[in-house]
């Protein structure tokens, strides 16, 4: 049975795996990473080869910021080009991964803290497909997106993630896609290929310390971490996907970092693997 046909029986028949699927947070950076072969996209490819092939993927992308919580529930989500000013080659990309209404319904049933809507209009935005096309270039793994409710705080999103834990036992890869440090207004073109302001490096180091020490409460209350945190997170959409990754960690699991680099002065590509 193929990976896709096996997954179509997800809610009733897909067995519990003899492993717990890892969880990822990807610093996705510029949309151009979706078509460039560079140090970041190479690591995305390597990561996919290093973890089990998932039965499906749930992506929490910085670029689906909504009122309320929603899951894409169409058979074939469209590729969304939600950006401007980039080369035509980027707009020409189509990532024809199937969706999974079955997974959307199963995930909805697991979430009890809030009513979840099933969406048939969104698709896969660039926070999802720019990463996934390097991880699974054949586009043969079903993908569902989970939106981020902009009216809720970081703790809400951290706690909501815990309700999805059982999916990890079914081989579902849950992937947060954003950037820990993300301040586009302060970008430096002189540092576009690498380098960060002192405040960006300082707070990124603090984020890493807290993640590696399993100290999640300060990360949920990032507003208390000082001026550098406020510069790093002027708006929360790129930070909140990290909460989903951390919320899915159990106490015994290992944590590792990759793509740990600052670019353009005020962004960091630092990414996290759990499990």
Describe the structure.
- This protein has one domain (3-274): 3-Layer(aba) Sandwich (Protocatechuate 4,5-dioxygenase, Chain B).
- Helices cover 33% and strands 16% of the residues.
- The chain contains twelve helices and twelve strands.
- The chain has helices at residues 3-7, 10-13, 39-50, 88-91, 101-110, 126-135, 154-162, 165-168, 198-212, 217-220, 227-232, 240-247, and strands at residues 23-27, 56-61, 65-66, 69-72, 116-119, 143-145, 148-149, 172-178, 255-258, 262-263, 267-268, 271-274.
- The strands form four sheets. The chain has a six-stranded mixed sheet, with helices on both faces. The chain has a two-stranded parallel sheet with strand order 3-7.
- Helix 3 crosses helix 6 (126-135) and helix 7 (154-162) runs parallel beside helix 12.
- Pfam families: LigB.
- This is 4,5-DOPA dioxygenase extradiol.
- GO terms for molecular function: stizolobate synthase activity.
């Amino acid at each position: 049975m193929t990976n896709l046909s096996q997954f179509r029986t997800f809610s009733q028949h897909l067995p519990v795996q003899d492993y717990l699927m890892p969880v990822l947070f990807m610093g996705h950076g510029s949309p151009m990473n979706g078509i460039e072969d560079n140090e970041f996209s190479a690591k995305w490819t390597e990561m996919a080869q290093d973890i089990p092939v998932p039965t499906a993927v749930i992506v929490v992308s910085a670029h689906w910021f909504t009122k309320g919580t929603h899951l894409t529930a169409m058979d074939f989500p469209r590729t969304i080009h939600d950006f401007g000013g980039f080369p035509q080659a980027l707009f020409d990309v189509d990532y024809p991964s199937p969706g999974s209404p079955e997974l959307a319904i199963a995930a909805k049933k697991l979430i009890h803290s809030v009513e979840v809507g099933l969406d048939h209009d969104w698709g896969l935005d660039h926070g999802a497909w720019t990463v996934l096309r390097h991880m699974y270039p054949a586009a043969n793994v079903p993908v569902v997106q989970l939106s981020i409710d902009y009216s809720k705080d970081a703790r809400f999103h951290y706690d909501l993630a815990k309700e999805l834990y059982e999916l990890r036992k079914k081989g579902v890869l849950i992937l947060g896609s954003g950037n820990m440090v993300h301040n586009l207004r302060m970008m430096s073109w002189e540092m576009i290929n690498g380098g960060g302001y002192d405040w960006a490096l300082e707070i990124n180091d603090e984020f890493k310390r807290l993640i590696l020490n399993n100290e999640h409460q300060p990360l949920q209350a990032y507003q208390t971490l000082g001026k550098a945190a406020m510069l790093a997170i002027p708006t929360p959409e790129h930070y909140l996907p990290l909460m989903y990754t951390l919320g899915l960690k159990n106490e015994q699991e290992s944590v590792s970092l990759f793509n740990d680099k600052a670019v353009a002065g005020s962004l960091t590509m630092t990414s996290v693997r759990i499990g």
